[in-house]
């Protein structure tokens, strides 16, 4: 009794896919020999078709292998470049974090304090200018402005003051300090540098110094007290009472 054949409807067992590699040179030579034999001798047509298909497959596999090698090299280069870029990004982020602290501390500074400090750096304080005898405040202010202009002219400081005003309450028996705000720190430094020329000024007892902070004024007061206690003459800061100046004569 003949054994029945397997039905064509039954699927064949699946085989695992194997890694396809490019044939070695020895196998390529054997395939080339077979192609030569098929052209020299009579071989069935299906054999020729199989050999031609194998040759085409071999060429395609060689092309694919070259492409895979090229892609692998480019992938390695991209990995190195990506790693370098990550390092650069981390360095930039750390720099930004380190720089963010000074900005945050500066943002907490009072803008009024900054403006006041900038104004102080271009200001001078003059002592020894007597008070005006006028009862009108505007006339006393104009008198102070004329006196300051005469002092700046004597010091050869070529600028017009931004503001001139007395500090403290009015006291007819003692002249208050006069604060002068100059246009720039350049004129302030020039006036302080040439303050010694006031020795030859027409009105004696006029002194000029830069505008100081409270800590600097405290240190100067302590230094004067120390010299006074040691029976040394203190540095002249405030002038004695003088009759009002005549700006036209300065």
TrEMBL record:
UniProt feature, compositional bias: Polar residues: 1-12
Pfam families from the UniProt entry: YabA (PF06156)
Bias type Basic and acidic residues, positions: 20-32, 214-225
Ranges annotated as biased composition (Pro residues): 232-250
Region annotation Disordered: where it falls in the sequence: 1-38, 214-250
A Gene Ontology biological process term: DNA replication
InterPro entries according to UniProt: YabA
GO molecular function, one term: metal ion binding
UniProt key word Cytoplasm: yes
Keyword tags: Cytoplasm, DNA replication, Metal-binding, Zinc
The keyword Cytoplasm is assigned to this record: yes
Protein name: Uncharacterized protein
Organism the protein comes from: Ancylostoma ceylanicum
């Amino acid at each position: 009794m003949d054994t029945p054949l397997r039905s064509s409807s039954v699927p064949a067992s699946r085989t695992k896919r194997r890694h396809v590699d490019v044939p070695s040179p020895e196998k390529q030579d054997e395939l080339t020999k077979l192609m030569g034999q098929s052209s020299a001798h009579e071989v069935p047509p299906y054999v020729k078709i199989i050999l031609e298909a194998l040759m085409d497959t071999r060429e395609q596999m060689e092309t694919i292998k070259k492409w895979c090698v090229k892609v692998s090299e480019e992938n390695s280069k991209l990995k190195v470049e990506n790693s370098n870029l990550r390092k650069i990004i981390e360095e930039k982020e750390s720099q930004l974090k380190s720089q963010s602290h000074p900005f945050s501390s500066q943002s907490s500074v009072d803008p009024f304090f900054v403006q006041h400090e900038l104004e102080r750096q271009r200001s001078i304080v003059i002592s020894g200018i007597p008070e005006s005898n006028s009862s009108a405040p505007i006339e006393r202010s104009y008198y102070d402005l004329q006196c300051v202009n005469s002092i700046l002219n004597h010091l050869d400081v070529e600028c017009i003051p931004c503001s001139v005003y007395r500090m403290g309450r009015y006291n007819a028996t003692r002249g208050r300090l006069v604060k002068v705000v100059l246009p720039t720190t350049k004129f302030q430094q020039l006036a302080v540098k040439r303050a010694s020329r006031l020795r030859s000024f027409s009105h004696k007892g006029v002194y000029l110094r830069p505008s100081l902070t409270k800590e600097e004024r405290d240190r100067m007061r302590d230094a004067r007290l120390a010299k006074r206690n040691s029976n040394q003459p203190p540095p002249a800061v405030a002038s004695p009472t003088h009759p009002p100046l005549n700006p036209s004569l300065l």
